[in-house]
Design a protein that fits this description.
This protein is mainly α and 323 residues long. It is 58% helix and 1% strand. It has 15 helices and two strands. Strands 1-2 form a two-stranded antiparallel sheet. The radius of gyration is 21 Å and the shape is globular.
């Protein structure tokens, strides 16, 4: 009887899920887009990914040692950050830029704020934004898909524009919707294959790693606004081109759902997703860059604390006056 009445501190309900298992599911979901990227852009897509992963692991290990904190590379969060950072790179960008982006992501955006769970901005997106501001030319030069594993997409790569450039000029892109869905178009390494990114997102929802709130509200907001503001172009084609272009799917399923930098409640996640959608369209329409996903998510990261504050459930038993 004494053993049955023993009370321990919370949490009282324990789950088999932990950071390692969650990150493993995310890595699994991110592998099909990597295969597509290698098919469309050649071996440099894999090189960037490997460099990103190794760099992030090393920076996390070294930083934790210097700060005399416990080793956390086993939770695989640094691996996920490295993959996501590489997916935000142009395949023709120098590999050392991926190393610099990894440093910003792990050391500046993550470890200086205390590590996983303490960072207030998505580390991979912080690294991408830093690189875009520092090396704009390399980060906005897109290699034309070559559909060859052995392709050498270095400095002499044939460049092309992303469909977002045409959409920003308010014209429909030359690339077909079907090819944009598969990924055979210019863009970052991991953001071009919308089909495989959605498949990865569905896998994460089925595994209950993420919920539907943020991706659906994010993509839905972009869909509604672009459908209503086609400006005389074919509404359906314009809307689908906006949805299938750029980093919307990668951002909606894999970055706007980050546990540490996004709201915790369902209502908060919907607000967060709507805000990301509004900012993405505004930046795409009126910003200096044709893409706005990274900036939209990071800006909404800054509002996460306020969203959580005003959407948290009321404590049971409070708010009622007696007598």
């Amino acid at each position: 009887m004494e053993k049955l009445l023993t009370v321990t501190s919370s949490p009282h309900i324990r789950s088999e899920e932990n950071t390692h298992s969650i990150m493993t599911d995310v890595i699994i979901a991110l592998m099909p887009p990597l295969v597509a990227a290698m098919y469309f852009f050649g071996y440099r897509a894999l090189l960037h990914t490997l460099v990103g992963v190794v760099s992030c692991i090393l920076f996390e290990y070294i930083t934790r040692r210097i700060m005399k904190r416990n080793n956390t590379i086993g939770d695989l969060s640094a691996v996920v950050t490295g993959i996501l950072l590489a997916y935000n790179m142009s395949v023709s960008a120098p590999l050392w830029m991926t190393v610099i982006g990894s440093f910003i992501a792990i050391v500046v955006a993550k470890q200086l704020f205390g590590g996983l769970g303490q960072n207030f901005m998505n580390p991979a997106l912080t690294g991408r934004i830093f690189l875009a501001a520092s090396f704009t030319g390399a980060m906005t030069t897109w290699a034309h898909p070559v559909f060859l594993w052995t392709a050498n997409l270095g400095a002499d790569a044939v460049t092309t524009a992303t469909p977002l450039v045409s959409l920003k000029a308010h014209t429909l892109p030359d690339t077909s919707l079907f090819m944009m869905l598969l990924g055979g178009t210019g863009g970052c390494i991991g953001e071009t294959s919308a089909l495989l990114l959605v498949a990865g997102g569905i896998y994460l929802m089925m595994r209950r790693v993420i919920t539907w709130h943020t991706p659906v509200s994010y993509i839905g907001t972009v869909a509604i606004i672009t459908f209503l503001s086609s400006g005389g172009l074919n509404r359906g084609q314009f809307m689908l081109s906006e949805l299938l272009s750029g980093g919307l799917m990668l951002g909606a399923f894999f970055m706007a759902t980050d546990y540490a930098t996004t709201p915790v409640t369902g209502k908060g996640r919907i607000i967060f997703g709507i805000g990301c959608g509004l900012l993405t369209v505004l930046i795409r329409y009126y910003g200096g860059y044709p893409e706005g996903v990274s900036y939209a998510i990071v800006l909404m990261n800054l509002l996460t604390w306020f969203i959580d504050k005003y959407t948290k459930p009321k404590a049971f038993g409070r708010g009622v006056k007696l007598g």
